Amino acid sequence: MAKSTAMIIAGKADSASKASTASVIEALGESSGGMVFSDYVETAARSRPVTETTVLLGLVSRGRADIAVVEAGELPLKFSRKLEIGAVLKRDNPFNVIISNEETILDELPPDISIAVGDPGTKGQLLNYRDDIDFVDCDEDYAGLREMLDRGETGGFVARAWEVEMLGRQDEVVEVFTSSICMPPAGQGAVVLIVRAGDRKAAGVVREINHPASLAEVVLERTLLGAMSKDGKGGIGVLAEFEGDEFELSAVIASPDGSTKIASEIHGWAGDELKVVGSLVEDLLEKGGGEIIEMYRSIPEE
Question: Do 107 and 256 belong together in one domain?
Answer without folding.
Answer: no
